[in-house]
């Protein structure tokens, strides 16, 4: 049977990030995607021009409708928007207890627009973070979550990952792209509270990408839904994102930052 995976995230109408990127990733990895929208954004590859949170009870109703009917094998959580949305999601997840919750703590866009209100951060830490099977912060998000500077070395990333594990996430993957931005390899640090692994991938030299965090966390959720163990899911997702970054030139989407291309392999196979 094809597993079902639910994304709870924001909408990027230009298609490179958010729910749109999540559903493409699910399709590429052959899991069935469901999607509950937390926030509508108006954005393109150059700018986020509007952020419009969905009413918390409407977010909750979408998730409840899915979880009450569909057998969900993994959940990916992305952009949340407001404290009230964070709380309503935590409440409905505690009620239904779906397995394999992957949380990408989206705080701002690469262009600098805030995507989670400041007062929501504390609610996020307290109510949602402890529900994470895997938490996937980048360097800035990891720093913000623990109220410290962003890690700038693999050693610092290891320290932050352990702190975030102590805050309640079962596994923490601090993504390395911005920890050591000039290194030839990206090192993602995975901490399960007892073991720390450094997952390495050859860096794809690409300034100004769009949607990498969304695709990574969705790919982890997809692999967990298919039965992979957490380290294997993280490793596979890391490779998947690297390939989706490398294929970004096949798309001509917009004139700003380059959306990654999670569907590249599927489309290439169809052409053959
Ligand atoms: N818009 C939405 C709806 C998102 O979920 C995200 C990231 O998760 C972004 C924008 C930011 O994407 P990027 O970091 O590529 O700018």
How would you concisely characterize the structure shown here?
By secondary structure, the protein is of the alpha/beta class.
Pairing-aware structural class of the strands and helices? alpha/beta
Largest sheet: 9 strands, mixed
Q: What small-molecule ligands were found?
A: pyridoxal-5'-phosphate
Average pLDDT reading: 95
Task: Tell me what the structure shows.
40% of the residues lie in helices and 22% in strands. The chain has helices at 18-28, 56-67, 83-96, 118-128, 139-146, 154-166, 212-225, 230-246, 264-271; strands spanning 4-11, 32-43, 48-53, 72-77, 101-103, 134-135, 171-174, 185-191, 196-202, 209-210, 258-259. It has a 9-stranded mixed beta sheet, with helices on both faces. Strands 10-11 form a two-stranded parallel ribbon. The protein is α/β, with parallel strands linked by helices and 272 residues long. The protein contains 9 helices and 11 strands. The structure holds pyridoxal-5'-phosphate (PLP). Pyridoxal-5'-phosphate binds next to strand 1, strand 2 and helix 7.
Itemize the secondary structure elements and their pairings.
Blueprint lengths: L3 E8 L6 H11 L3 E12 L4 E6 L2 H12 L4 E6 L5 H14 L4 E3 L14 H11 L5 E2 L3 H8 L7 H13 L4 E4 L10 E7 L4 E7 L6 E2 L1 H14 L4 H17 L11 E2 L4 H8 L1
């Amino acid at each position: 049977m094809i597993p079902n995976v639910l994304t709870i995230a924001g909408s990027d109408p230009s298609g490179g990030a958010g729910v749109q990127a999540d559903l493409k990733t699910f399709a590429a990895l052959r899991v069935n995607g469901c999607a509950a929208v937390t926030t509508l954004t108006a954005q393109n590859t150059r700018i986020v021009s509007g952020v419009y949170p969905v009413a918390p009870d409407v977010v909750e109703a979408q998730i409840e409708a899915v979880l009450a009917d569909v057998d969900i094998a993994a959940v990916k959580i992305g952009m949340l928007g407001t404290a009230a949305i964070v709380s309503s999601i935590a409440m409905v997840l505690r009620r239904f207890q779906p397995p394999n919750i992957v949380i990408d703590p989206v705080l701002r866009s690469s262009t600098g627009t805030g995507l989670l209100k400041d007062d929501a951060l504390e609610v996020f830490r307290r109510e949602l973070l402890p529900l994470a099977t895997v938490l996937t912060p980048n360097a800035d998000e990891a720093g913000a979550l623990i109220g410290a500077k962003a890690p700038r070395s693999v050693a610092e990333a290891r320290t932050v990952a352990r702190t975030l594990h102590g805050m309640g996430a079962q596994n923490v993957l601090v993504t390395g792209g911005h920890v050591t931005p000039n290194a030839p390899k990206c090192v993602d640090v995975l901490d399960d509270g007892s073991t720390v692994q450094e997952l390495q991938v050859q860096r794809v030299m690409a300034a100004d990408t769009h949607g990498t965090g969304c695709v990574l966390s969705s790919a982890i959720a997809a692999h967990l839904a298919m039965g992979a163990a957490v380290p294997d899911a993280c490793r596979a997702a890391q490779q998947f994102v690297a390939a989706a970054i490398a294929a970004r030139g096949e798309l001509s989407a917009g004139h700003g930052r380059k959306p990654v291309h999670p569907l590249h392999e599927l489309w290439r196979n169809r052409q053959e």
